[in-house]
Amino acid sequence: MWFWWFMFVCNVLVPLIMILAGRMMWKHCPKKINHVYGYRTGRSMKNMDTWRFAHDHCGRLWWKLGWIMLITSFLISLPFFHSSEDVIGTVTLVLCTVQIIVLIASIFPTETALKRAFKEDGTRR
Prior knowledge:
There is one protein chain. This protein has four helices and no strands. The termini are far apart. Helix 1 (2-27) packs antiparallel against helix 2 (48-77), helix 2 (48-77) packs antiparallel against helix 3 (85-105) and helix 2 runs antiparallel to helix 4 (107-117). By secondary structure, the chain is mostly helical. The protein is elongated, with a radius of gyration of 17 Å. Helix content is 70%, strand content 0%.
């Protein structure tokens, strides 16, 4: 049973981080454009307007996806409470892989929104 609890914590870790980081990005965008933390792509770092827009968009997206994945992870993990360690490990591996794919895939809608809202030089359309 301890293994299930450990894997359950692993299953909800990515969604919780997305919820917290999304809320921080959305509500408290980094004050300066930097190469250390934040949503850092070439398009988002053109100027402060693109920087704020990218953080707002990606933050809201992460916040929504994080809640969806948290509830889904809980509902998927629950039926495997008394399963073998192999089954629990496999479910966790698949679930964490899907979560990471969703996390990385969130870049595409944010970049598309940036492309629609801004010209190549970073000025608003």
